[in-house]
Amino acid sequence: MSSLVCSFRRTRTLATRSNRRGAREVPFIVIAPILGLMIGVLGGSPLAAQQTAPPQGPQVAGTEAALLPEADSVTQHQGTFNGQSVSYTATAGTLPIRENGEVAAKMFYVAYVKDGVDDPASRPLFFSFNGGPGSSSVWMHMGYTGPRHVTYDENGFALLPPGGVEDNPHAILDVADIVYIDPIATGFSRMTEGQPLHKYHGVDADIASVAEFIRLWTTRNDRWDSPKFIIGESYGTTRAAGLAGYLQSTHTMFLNGVILVSMTGIGVQRGPDLTFALTLPVFTATAWYHGRLPSDLQDRPLREVLDEAEAFAMGDFLDALVNGHDLEDAERERVAQQAARYTGLSAEYLVAANLRVAKERFRKELMREQRLTVGRLDARYKGVDSEAAGETNEYDPAMADWNGAFTTSINRYLREELGYDPDLEYNIFGNVYPWERDSQVPVGEMLRQAMTENPYLKVLIQGGYYDMATDYYSAMYTIGHLQPGGELKDRFRFSLYESGHMMYLRDEDLENSNNDLREFVRWALEDLPDYPR
User: Could you tell me the pTM of the whole model?
Assistant: First the structure.
């Protein structure tokens, strides 16, 4: 194991709920601990499943790292964010990841730091990344919190290729500086020549390498005094949860906040019957969006309908699943009729599936008679397969919508606006396989322990109702079972949006979710003297 990967200390967590500005009101749920535990460390990591493992190439890195510029590119900019004019410095470059004194890798980043701050070290600081594993930070950088973002229509759907980039008036640079990190093999991050290609490709090694980057960037930029936040999306929430514990135990770096966007299972286990029950509400949301529910449900606000669906899912539906073959035929039929009401599927189909419909089958079945499928990362998107038969869709129409626009935009932006132009491909998705899935300690436990040892650490969970990869109701269950006794529940908040995995693509949710980040920073630092700055 890499020398960066020190032994992990134990960790775990709980949930609360609060209706913050811009978020849909969502009631807190209480689910009995005896219902079981949730999905594993990599459960629900959506971007990983969009790509097949690449062909095995050289297992030792070549000369790509040598193509990176020797010096960082530093440029000056001005923008208006949340109504405030902000002058800022953008730095695009790499930091070395060392092993035994030698540079093993170069990790690419883009940092945005506000100019003219009397005491820069006191300004809140965000470290941001996406997931996969194997994804660059392009999605949140160019879609969510960065000063420039990919141009989409107001509902979050791509425009005619090649698309474009525009100012992001909702970016959080008015309240915090941001560093976007590309893990090894993603973006422009590369192993140096002769190093094992997949040295940092695993749960533990990935956490350790990103933690080393954060430590080094913080040290070189004299930011140890800054309030620190980590924000990760998708598999990035697995990384973020682990980092909270690892940074604290290995580098004695205590965080003020962790933001989990489109959260995975972070190591909390659950049984298969519970999984089917927890995913029913996202079926309801999807069917509601596409007009597939009975009129008495269809005509009501989504959140009201989800309240009913959640109660049914954790009540009669879960009871029926748990009963297995002891379920009476009449009761099976009754529950199937009710489940059909909340999912848009037929009762006959549900009975034939033993009431157990996996997400991938639902995406194919819901609109089969129209020869359409729905998206995995965002179920608002519709796709067309080569045939209407079959159990799963051929592709994710949401991912197909996003890939082209974001790839074009990041390549143009980095080279033309930030002046960082290596003769090297920017890997939207990098070759990170084989990925070592075994972690010494579940990352949820690492987060829980960090919170118990750091009583000021707070957590915000953001998600979209139409995310069928990392669904919102499973995330609520996960947070509710990290510390089931409830001792930490008042340090968690949920913000949910009528969008998908990348909820920030929709104009309304881009504004609301960034405002929720601002409110979270205020909440996390409310006891800090002289804040805000």
Answer: 0.89
